[in-house]
């Protein structure tokens, strides 16, 4: 059985009128079913994103047994059952305002240049609950961000050394987890100055990491 489905993320009120669902107060519906489902709940029609979300779409072809066709922080992930043949989908993603979805990283992102680490950290946190400076936890993840990094000369990450921490003791401030994966430049980290406690990714070092003075300017790369 081939399941063909499409979601129209117009963010209009009640696009599922024929299904006679009642809109949740203060919500916009995420979309409507434009094709037939079998054994798949019509949860897309009764779930919504709040007004401060924006919709972004990408046309994709999938061969995998199941895929998410709707995703939002307020949504359960909705997946389709098995299909035997290739199906075309329009896949929609919801991001907070001022952020856009990046297909390579699978995150909502935005940036602001010329900020110290404390200001960059605050800027990201104030965008939306859960938004934070970028954190890199694997080589695969770093490669996914490579194109984005290439747009800037220096990028602040959420990695930070505690004030009295050891040379290689860094934590991702958004999660509190210790930094395990790293891509340090030669002779880094060196803690050359007492204030060099923030991880910055620099173009001049081929986008390798260094511990930098937290008050220096850099780009806040925010993810959600």
UniProtKB/TrEMBL annotation:
Domain C-type lectin intervals: 104-223
SMART domains, per database record: CLECT
Recorded superkingdom: Eukaryota
Listed name of the protein: C-type lectin domain-containing protein
Species this chain originates from: Paralvinella palmiformis
Upper classification of the organism: Eukaryota, Metazoa, Spiralia, Lophotrochozoa, Annelida
